[in-house]
Amino acid sequence: MSEQNKTATRTEFSPEDFERVYDFTYDPHEERMLLNFGPSHPATHGTLRLVMELDGERIVRCVPELGYLHHGFEKLGEYRTYNQVVTITDRMNYLSPMNNNFGYILAVEKLFGIEVTKRARYFRVLLAELSRIMDHLVSLGTWAIDLGAYTPFLYLFRERENIYNLFELLAGTRLTISYTRIGGFARDRDIPPEFFPQVLKFLDGLLKTVDEVERLLLRNKIWLNRTKGVGIITKEDAISYGITGPCLRASGIAFDLRVAQPYSDYDEFEFDVPVGENGDVFDRYIVRLEEIRQSVRIIRQAIDRFPEGELNVDPDTKVMLPPKDEVYGSIEGLIHHFEMIMLNRGARAPKGEAYVATESPNGELGFYVISNGGNGPYRFRVRPPSFYNYQILPRLLEGQMLSDTVAVLSSLNIIAGELDR
Amino acid sequence: MGIESKLGDNILTTRIDSFINWARKNSLWPMPFGTACCAIELMAVLGPKYDLARFGAEAIRFSPRQSDLMIVAGRVSIKMMPVLQKIYRQMPEPKWVISMGACASSGGVFDTYSTIQGIDNFIPVDVYVPGCPPRPETLVDAVMKIQKKIEKERSAQYR
Amino acid sequence: MATNEEILKKIREKFGDAVLETSDALGEAAVSVRRDVIVDLLKFLREDPDLAFDFLMDLCGVDYLEMGGFERFAVVYHLYSLKHNHRVRVKAFVPENDPRIDSVTELWAAANWAEREVYDMYGIEFNNHPDMRRILCPDDFVGNPLRKDFPLQGIGYRESFEKIDRESAQ
Fold first, then answer.
1. pLDDT digits (tens, 9 = 90+) for A161-185
2. Does some domain include residue A59?
3. Nearest of B159, B158, B153 to residue B20 by alpha carbon
4. Which of A381, B6, B60, C54 is deepest in the core (most CB within 10 A)?
C-alpha cells in the first residue's frame, strides 16, 4: 500500500515532476528558478502551498496547491444528526466559529420551518458580530506580523482574549463553541446577568486598542509603500471569480448580505457598510478596520433594545430538549428526551432542500442542506468564501515581486480549514 | 565539603548531565507545526496572556534545522503526512514532539478517509495534550512535562 | 427584482423541452434540466437584462443514489444577481454510465476550481475544462469520496505510511 502513496514524492521537488503536472518546460540554461512556498511556512496562514516560477525577484507564474487540510467535512456531515453537525461547522472557519454555527442553523431551521423567538434572533446577531470582531482582530494581527510589525499582533490578541472570556461565560469553551441548536441555543438557562455589562466594558477597551493600532500603521511610510497599489482586484475580475466579503467591498462594489438580503432581524439595526476605492491591499485593510467599528455599533444597539421573553422555542415543537424537571418528573418528558437523544432518533426534517447564505467575516458563507426525511442531512454542502477568494491569487501575483506575495496572501484572509474542508 | 570548600563561593560543581539538561530544558526552541484550530490556541499561548516566553521558548523558528521541540497542533491529513515526516527527519537530535489536541493524538472528531488517526502511528511522540482545542494552560503544562522528561536524560553517557 | 414565478416562467418559455422540473419550495426558485442545455441556459440567465445573474455563487455535486432523482448525479449551480437581488438554483442531471457535462469556465472564472472539486469528489468530468485534475485529495488517490458507496473511513490510505522509530535509545 505504501507504493500507492506517492504523495511522498511530491515533496521531493524535482523540476521534471512539475513539468508533467503543471505543464511547465524547464530549461536549465535560463535564469528562471522554481520556488516552493511550502505547506509549512510562517507566512502562509495554515497549510497553503504555492509553487512559483521566479525570474530574479519577479514572479512569472504561480500555481497554488490545496488539499493539505482536507478532512471530509461534507461526507462526515452525512453521517451525523442535525445538532451534531453544529460541532463540525465550528471547525471550518476556526477564527469565527459563531458565524458558521449561525449560518448552518439558519439553513436547518428553514428546512424544519421553525421560527425562533425575537430574543434569540437579537442574541444571535450580537454573538455573530462579536465573532466578526474576533476574525478581523486575527486577520489584522497576522497581516501586520507578516509584513514585519510585531506589536499590533500582541495588542489585538489581548483583545481577543477578552472575547474568549465572554464566550466561556456563555458556552463553556473558548474557541469551538457549538453554541446554537435547532430552535435556539444550547443551554437551558437564560443569558447570565453579568454578560451585558462585561460586553460593554470590553467594547470601550476595544475601540481604544483599534485606534492605537490604526495610529501605529496608517501613516507609517513602510506600511504604505508595501500595501498601496499592490494586489489590485478589478470589479470585473471580482464578479467573474465570485469574490465576496471585504475583498469585494474594497474594490468598490457595495454588496453586503446583511443589507441586501437581511436575515435574523438585521434590517432593524443601523450601520454603514465600508466600501473601498482601489481594491488594493491597503483598501482591504481599511475596510476590515472599519467593519470592526460598525460591529461595535450594532452590538451597542442590540444591547439597548434587547427584547424580553423566552430564549429558546417551546419544547412542544419537538426539536429541542425538554427542561430537566419535566424529564425527571413526568413520563412524557422522559420519552421526549429519549426521542431526541438516542441513537438513530432525533428530530426529523421534512424532505426538501435549502440554501441559506449569511455574511461571514470572509464573505458569503452559504449552507446547502438537502434532507431525505432522516434525522441528519442527506447532503451537507458548504459554500466556502475562502475557496473562491483564493482562486484569484495567481492572477494578482503575475509580474509582481516575491515580497508582495505575503502582503497579498494575508490580505485575502484565507483560512485553510474553510478552504479545504 | 571536599573540593568545594577550597574553591570558594563563586564556583558550583554538578554533574555534566544535570548541567546539559538544565541548559536544554530552559531554552527549548519550538517548531510549531500548526494546521488547524489548535494553531490558534498555540498563537494564544505565544501571546501576551499565557506567555510561553517565560520558559525560554520564545524563539519560534519555523525552520526545523534550528529547533528541538515540534508541536503538532491540529489535524493531519493524508496529504500533509509526508510533509510532517520530512520535517521530523530534518530536525537534529535531541528532539521532542508534543501532540497537541485530540486530532493529532487520535484523530479526534474526524474518523474519515483522509485524517490520520493519531500521529503516533507514524512518528514518535513524547507528550499528548487532550482537548479540542486544549486550554493554553494545558499546553504550558505539557511543556513543563517535557522539561521534567529532559531532566532525566542521560546524555553524557556512552552506550 | 423579479419574483420566483417570473424567473421560472422565463426559463420554461425559452428551454421548455429540456426542463425536467421547476419548484418554488421554501421561497427558493429551483429548476432541473437535462445536461446538454446547461451552457446555453446559464448564458441566457447571465445575459438577459431582466434576470442578469452575474454571480456564480456556488457549484457543487449531489449523489442521488439513496434518494432517487432523475439520474444518479446532479451538478447544482447557485446564481445570484447583483443588480436585481434575486437568486436561482439550476440542477443539471448527469447519468451514472456517462458522467460528463460541459464546463462553464468561459462564462465565470470561479467555476474552474469548483468543477475540479466536483471531479475529485464525484468523478464527473467536465468537457473543455482547462485543467482537469484533482484538487483536494492527493494526486494518486483512487476513488471518489463523496459518492454514497465510498466508505466514510476510507479504503486504507490513512494507514499507508511508514513508521519512524525513535533512533536514540531513551
1. 899 999 988 888 888 888 888 888 8
2. no
3. B153
4. A381
Three-class HEC string of A22-53 = HCCCCCCCCCEEEEEECCCCCCCCCCCEEEEE
C169 at interface of B, judged by CB pairs closer than 8 A: yes
Q: How far apart are CA A414 and CA A48, in angstroms?
A: 9
Torsion of CA C106, A355, C60, A6, to 10 degrees: 130
Q: Is C170 within a domain?
A: no
In a domain, B136, yes or no: yes
Spell B120-145 as b/e; 16+ CB within 10 A means b.
bebbbbbbbbebbbbbbebbbebbee
Grid coordinates of A16: 521534471
- The shortest C-alpha distance from A367 to chain C (Å) reads 10
Check if the beta carbon of residue A65 is closer than 8 Å to that of residue A415. Answer: no
The answer to whether residue A105 is domain-embedded is yes
Global pTM value? 0.89
Cross-chain residue pair A74–C146, CB shorter than 8 Å: yes
CATH number at residue B51: 3.40.50.12280
Contact C7, C86 (CB under 8 A): yes
Average pLDDT over residues B78-100: 88
Record: contact C163-B89, CB cut-off 8 A: no
Q: Is A24 on the interface with C (CB under 8 A)?
A: no
Residue A410 lies in a domain: yes
C142–chain B Cβ distance below 8 A for any pair: no
Q: Residue A283 sits in which domain range?
A: 73-314+346-420
Report if residue A96 sits inside a domain.
yes
Which range marks the domain in which residue C58 is found?
4-108
Domain limits for position B46: 3-150
CA distance C106 to B107: 41
Give the tens place of pLDDT for each residue, A11-62. 445 555 555 556 566 666 777 777 888 787 776 677 888 888 888 888 888 8
What would the DSSP string read from start to end of A67-99? -TT---HHHHHTTS-HHHHHHHHHTTSTTSHHH
